[in-house]
Structure formats: C-alpha cells, structure tokens
Amino acid sequence: MSRALLWLTLGACALPLHAATYYVIVAGLGGEPDYEQRFTSAARDLDRVFQSEGPVAHVVALTGAQSTAAQLRSALATVAHAARADDDFVLILIGHGSYDGVEYKFNLVGPDLTAAELATLCDRIPARRQLIVDTTSSSGGAIAALERPGRAVITATKSGTEKNATVFARYWVEALQDPAADTDKSDSVSAMEAFAYATKKTAAFYDSQKRLATEHAVFNDTGSGEPVRDAGNGQGQLLSTFTLLRLGTSEQAANDPAKRALLEQKDSLEQKIDTLKYQKAAMDPADYKKQLTEALVDLAKVQEQLDAGAAK
Amino acid sequence: MRRLIRIFALVLASAGLARAATPADCWQLRKHGADAHACFDALTRSASAYDRAEGFWGLADWEQANAQFRLATQSANSNALYKVRWGMLLHERFNDKDASDLFREALAKDPQNAQAYIGLALISAENFDGQAADYAAKAISLDPKSAEAHEVMADLALTNDDRDAALAEADKAIALSSDALDAMAIHVAVDLLADRAPDAWLAKIAAVNPKYGEGDGRIGHQLELHYRYEDAVAWYRKAIDAEPERWSAHSALGIDLMRLGKDDEPYKELELAYNNGYRDAATVNSLRLIDSYKNFDTIRDETTILKLNKSEVTLLQPYIQAELHTILATYEKKYRMTLPGPVQVEVYPNHEDFAVRTTGMPGLGALGVTFGRVVAMDSPSARKPGDFNWGSTLWHEMSHVFILTATNYRVPRWFTEGLAVHEEGMHSAEWRNRVTPDVLIAIRDKKLLPVEKLDRGFVFQDYPGQVEVSYFQAGTICDYIGEKWGEDKLLDMVHSYAKLETTPQAIQQNLALSNADFDKQYLAWIDRKYGAEASHFDEWRKTFMALVAAAEQKQFDIVLQQGPAVLALYPEYVDDANVYELLADAYQDRNDAEAETTILIAYEHHGGQSPDRLKRLAQLEADAGHADEAIATLERINYIYPVKDEDLHRRLGGLLYAQKQYDGAIREYNAVLASAPADKAGAEFNLAQAYFAAGQKDKAQDSVLAALEAAPGYRPAQKLLLELQQTPAKSN
C-alpha cells in the first residue's frame, strides 16, 4: 500500500461504525448446470459472509429463478428507499455478461440488464460510497457506464472483448473467507485488499493451468477515466477505505477521552514508522532496523495499554 | 593408385583442362579431400540451372543455390533428381519441412527415386519418429547398389544400438563403393563403443581422405548417443582439427560441452558456428539458453551444484538440495561408490529451455535428462499441477549419474533406464513403475521385446507409445531381478557392464540364465502380475467410459454402485478421470467423509498426484484428527507442485507447528514467504512464531519485525515482539 493510502486507511479507523452497508448480490443466468451451480454457490457464500456482519449489514441475494431484471430492479429500489447518504452500498454481479462493442449486458433469467440501466438504478441509491463488483465475462465493457464519483467499480475483465467465462468471482468470494486477505491486519477486509487477493489468485490459476489468461481484472474508483490494475495516481483511495467485511472487534477507543493521550502517542508512532519506511531506501540498514524496532516496540506497548484499558 | 588417378583427372576437369566437370565430380573431389573450389566455381557458370545450384551449394552460397534450384525445378518436366537435391540442400540448411515436401514431390514425379527415400530417412532419423529404417529399406530395395542407402541404414542401426546390423550394412556399402567413408566411420564408432582400437579403419579413411572431418563428427555423434559424452568431445575436436570450418562440428562440440556442464567454451563454439551461418534450432536455442543463465543462481556445496532460476531459487532450493543429499547418501551406500566430483542439477521453469537440453537425443526426454554428472530437468512450475513429480524424476536421473559413472558410460540404455525406474519405486511405492493403458495393451498384444533387443524400443518406435512401454519393461525387469535374485544382483550386473560384458553375458554371469530363459521367466512373472488386467482391458475401458458418463451426469448412485467393480479391473489407473476421483466426488456428494477419505487414501497409495485431491484428503485427515497423516499427504504435494501454492505451505506449516515439528514448520513458512504471499505480514508472523518456538530468538525477532513493518498494528505480532523483548537471549 502506498504511503498516501496508508494514511487514508489509518484515518478510516476513526470513522464511526454505526453506518449500515447494503449488499445486493446477484447470481445471473448460468445457462449450464455447472455454471448455474457455481454462480449460485458463490452468491450464497457471499450472502452468508455478509449476513455474519450482524445488524449493520442488509443483504439481498438473488439466485436461480429469482435472478430476473424485475427482481433486481426491485431489490435496488428497496435499497434506494432505505439507505442513507452515510451508508455504504455494494452490488456484486456474478455470472455471464455480454458486450456487442457498444453496450454491456448482465445476463439474467429473462431480459438482461444493460450497464446503463444498472447505473441508473444505482444512481438512485443515496449512499455516497458505492462499490460495484462485476465479475462476469465482458464486464470491462460496463465500466464506462457505471463509473461515477463516489463509486468504485471493479470488473473481472479489462474490456468487453474478454468474453470467456471468468474465475474472478471464485477468488473474490475466497478473499472474504480467508483471513490472509487482510494484509494490513486491521481486522477487516477492504475492497482493495479483496481486489488484490482475487487478482493474484486469478493470475495464479491461469499460470498453474498453463492457460493464457483470458481475464484481467481492473478497477476505477475516481469516477472517470480509464480503469487500472494497480493503485496510484489517485486510483485506489476509495477502494482502500471501503470496508467490505469486519473480521474482529474494531477499535472502539477512539471515542474514549481517557485514552486520548495514548491514541495521540499511537498516532505519532505510526507516523514515525511510516516516515521510517518511506526513508528506508536512503538509510543505513542497521540504523533503520534499530529505529524501526524501537518504534514498533513502543507502538506495541502503547497498544497493550490501550487494550488493557479496553478490557477493564 | 586408381583412386589417385581418378582424383587427378577430376582436378584437371575442374580446372577446365579436360571435359567439363559435373556436380558429382565436384562433390567426389571434395569427398576425397581435394580443393574443389574451382570445380564448383566452374559449375556456377554453367548453362544449366541445376549445375549452377550445385556449384553455389559447393561454394556455400546457400541463397544462390536455393534460387538456382527453384529455377531448375520450374519446368513441369524437370528431373526428379533436382527436387531431391534441392531437398538435400534444405535439409542441410535446417529446413526439414520444405525438404520433406520436396522429397515427396520428387517421389510423385518418380516413385522409384531411391535418393528421395534416403532424404526422407535422414529427416525421420533426426526426429526419431520410427520411419527412418522403412525409408532407408525402401531406398535399398529401389537401388540395391546405393552405397549411400546402406550407409544411412548402418547409421540408423548403430543409433538403435544394433551393432551387428550396423557393421553388416556398413560392409555392404564398402563392398559397393571403396570410398564409402561414412560406412568406415561406422566401423570406427563400433570399435570405440566396444573399447577396441579403431586404427585399421581410421587408416582406411585417411587413405581416401586424410582430413575427413565429417566422419569424425559422425563418430562423435554416435559416441554421444551412447552416453560417451567426454569421448564425443574428443572426436568433435578431431573434426574441427581436420576441417576448421566444419561449423556443424563446432555446434555439436558446444552442445556436448554444455552437457558436460562446462561454462565458457560452449558459448564460444556455438557462437562461432552461429556467426558462420550454422543456425540450426539446436545452435540457436542453445545460445539462447546460455544467455538465459543470467537469470539463474548457482548454489554450490561439496557434492552438489544447483542451478535454479532466480524467480524460484528461494522456494525450491531447500527442497531440492535436501533431496539431492538424501539421494547421494542412499546411492553411495547402495552402489558402494562415491561420485568423483559434484553433481550438477539444472532446473528449468520454462519447459522449452529444458527441451533445448534434450535436442537430438532419443527417448521420452520429457521429464529429465542426465549427461554424466549433469542433470537437467523441468521445474514443477514448468508443468501443470499433477503432471510431474520432481522428486521421483530426481531419483531417476541421479540413478543414471551413478550407473553411468560406475560403468564408465558403458551401459546399455535399457539397463540404466530400467534401474532408474526401479529406483523410483524402491524409494517410494507410490512412485513405482505404473502400468499405463499403453503398457497393458502391449502386454496383451505380446509386444514386449526380448531383453537383448530392448534398447531398440527406446530409440525408433515400432508403434506409438513404445518408448513408454520400454521404460516400463526395463523397470519391471529390474524389479523382477531384485525380487527374485536380490538387489545385489542388480549391482553385480552394473559391474558386468563395467567390464564390457554384453546383456546375454551379464544375465548368464549373474543370473545363470540364457537370455531366452530369462525372457521366458520374466514374461511369466509379468503375466502373473498384469495378465488378468491386460486381458480385461477392453472390458475396463468400456465400463470405465460408462462410469465417467454417469459421473458427468452426476448420477452418483450409479458411480457408487458400479465404481468398485470398475476399479478392481484396473486399480493402477490414476490418470485423468480415474475411478478413485469419481468415487470421491460421489462420496463427497453423500457427505460421507469416511468413505471419501478411504478412497482418496487408496488413490494416494496408488500414486495419484492431483494436488487438489491430495489437499482435500489432507483436509479430511486433519478434520478427523489425524494430523500426522495430513502432514504426510501435504508433504507428498511438495514433491509434485510446491510452487505457486502458498496455501499448501501455510497449511502444512500450521500442522507441523501444531505437532511441535518446528524445523518443518520453519521450512514451510519460509516457503510461504518465498511464494510472494498476499499476506506478507501473516506469513512473517507465522515464521516468527515457529522460530520462537524452536528457540531461534534472533530469527524470530527479524521475522516479527518484518511482519510489523508490513502491518504495524498487527496485534498478535505486537504481542510476540513484546514477548521477545522480555525473553532472555538464548544461543541459537
């Protein structure tokens, strides 16, 4: 994670946790029993994972015969009615997509939905922070229609012309079930961490099968411009702060005035560590190690005091 | 004297003082070591496009020669010979595809053209495709007086290690043509292979052409094909001494030196050949391979040299180096010898790089290859998961290293291959010689070769799959000897070959049997072991296909009902869509973990290698509280596909850590880190814990700092760091 993103992530820890997240998960038309089973299974896994978040998570999963354009419109309308501006909204599309060179369509039971229609439906949802994860074939063809400020869009393919069935969804689901996806050990999985996990695993899948990769996941979270594969140049900030899943107890101490001094000390130490890491290349390795060790030990001690206080 | 007179006449001819020289005259002149430049030069001014083509060819002006041949063959009525000769030019200039087309076009014009069949034989011989001898035989039948056809047949026979036939064909060529130099070279090669002085034949060659480098090169090639790499080097050098501009010899020398693990000279020789226009695939690819060595790290110790790609050295070195030392210790004890120097093992993550190392060699060449004390093999990352077991491959190739050394490179192909296959099975029953469908069919159809002729099954196949069948047969012959007479008899046979005994002599000497009796007993043993399976093969295939169809339809009742009977017909089959996996899927569908575990254990014990299946088995074993079994299962995967699978190493590390096997846990957690994990902090933390538990505090501190550097707020790592700060230092 870049230094700038790290700061944003640290800042995010102080956000109040009472805002809700609305999840809409759709397993589209499989066409064949194998795909049908695979898509449904992925959607159900996500449903279970998000439901485990508790009352702050509002989850709707459409699978099998429910996966119609009408049902999806209805689900999104319900969210549009219920969600507030400070809530988060997540739409995850699993299945097949198509792209005719102009328009992307998400394959559903009955009539499909175009990317433009999906965008319109999502635009009606007042949540300021939105995430759309389109894991279908040709999903790259949907980006231009879906992107908007405040909305991060992840697609399994870099363009509409990557038309083969994808495996990205499998690893996206796995990211939310594998604690290893929480690479910064913040007890939560951000959309950026899940994206990094799933893209790495997807690439490894094609590599191990000795197959030419037919999908290259990308994202755009600035609301304009071309999608990218890696964070940088402004891209990735929203994804990094977009918490998809909380794995454990998040920090509560931020609101405790008694802990303010410790928190300030902690904040100062984290800044020091970040600065040290930034200067690492220019420092004497032994000196870097000594200073880093001291700062990390101090930080661990401060955290221990914070934890001890929280446990009382 | 007659020869000299003829050459003199040719020289006159080439100088324009007598009749005009023909292409054959010029080539004859060159064959006899005379300067043919003027002769060929004169041809380039001929009114005949064909003559001009031959002239430019003789002057090594390939493009002009090619252009003139094109001109010469433009007419629909052109002589078939022109196309044959054009094909020969293209064959010489590494374009076998077009050469082959030209030979066939010539045959379309003239079905009786023996030269065209010779051309096809030469191309087939280089590809070891099994048709070369048929083509050569056809050429001989069409032109019984063609010395060249008999020379080609002699060369093929010797490549196939049929030395008697090689000599007989060579003698026929010499009887037809007193200057059949290549036939004489065959005699030299046979003498050298039998450790006889070849002086008489060398003198005969020198009498025709004292500087016949081509012959030296041919001799070197035959020596190389018979594992005599060092000797081949000497003969390639002789070829170069005789004809410094024989670029094919420079290339062959470079490649042979590479095979011997030499560092600088191979590049020099190959580059020299390349820069002088000798750019066949072997030369070009070998140069590319040498260039790629900058991407490799070399790790040396007293007895081993490992060359591993930088991208996977950290991951693979601990596994391969440890295995290599285990192998060395095992074979040193078994074969009662030590190698005279370190063994070099090269591991290629790009299969094409490995393939360069086997260019021009017979056999499967698919897994690994041994040249003296140099072993080259695929990295597991070069293959699909489950396709390859680097561990068994290394045991196989290292057996060659010992046997080639013990016999001073004088061992028949069947025996060293058979012993290598046998050794795989001796190390692990799961790596034992596996009876494949091709093998069962060969047993059923009685296609196994007599032991005395088994070498021939490895070089030019009589039927598709014969090389694989020959590996099986050679391996089971050694299994049979080991089982009936004891492992020491195999060592005695090694010593027999070292003393230059033939296979009949070695068998008579050590097993007190004639070859015929040995074959009879061995075939009876094979029949007892595999006869029933072989006779039921068609039934198995039919019922198996039906079972696969049922599984595809998810008709698990049918799979469960019929699977065991199908499995019983051919339990060794563990390849694609095997019955074990079909049954495992069915049991999983029924949530019958116990039955699924049982069938997957049977799959594992029969040598099943699907990493996904084995990981599933390990999970079932771990869930059932059988941590040791789960560890053993995951450790099997380390021999199959330890790359690109951080999950494997993390799981195995966790199990080992829980079992307090900290050294193993450290190895596996290091492997996680070497796999460039997404969760670097978690991987470092796990490693830190293992080091800490193993009492290696300094390393634990380094790892926990690395974890916290990646994720400063990582609570468990923070706690470990504080614990380490409070723990008194121990000596590691």
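Chain B has three domains: 30-284, 295-531, 538-726.
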